[in-house]
UniProtKB/TrEMBL annotation:
<protein>
    <submittedName>
        <fullName>Lipocalin family protein</fullName>
    </submittedName>
</protein>
Amino acid sequence: MKNTLLFLIAISLISCGTSKTVRTSKKVIKGNWVLNSITYSEKGTYNVNLLNDDSKDCFEGSLWQFVPNNNTGTYNISNVGCSSGARNFVFTIQEIDSQTGLYDFLLKPTNEKYKSDTNQGFRLNLTALSDVAMEWEQTVRVDGKPFTITMNFNKQ
């Protein structure tokens, strides 16, 4: 009976904690990144406003910093002709499928611009993560069809 009780306590503690895969991902994501390129699943010219903030041209080359111990970060846009400056956010990584390596990544801006809508956040798929590169995908609908935006980062 005593062994059964200890086993159940151990299982409940393990199930309540963050998975090892997510903890490892947070260690890898920590630090400074550059958003190098943004591509679309369909050919053509699109006027996409990423994260309800700015255009693709403004986001490419932006600098990102992730601080996983408190799930916060910033991204800084500095391209000419763009709304430059640092933007703050909080983020969450949730494991979807450990076999495929796909994660649900929730990014929630916290700047003054978003204070009126405290529930605004953006759900992305963290499709690739290594010590030097990271890839996010967001699928939206355009004319009733899926349209995927892919964002590629390199670690500084």
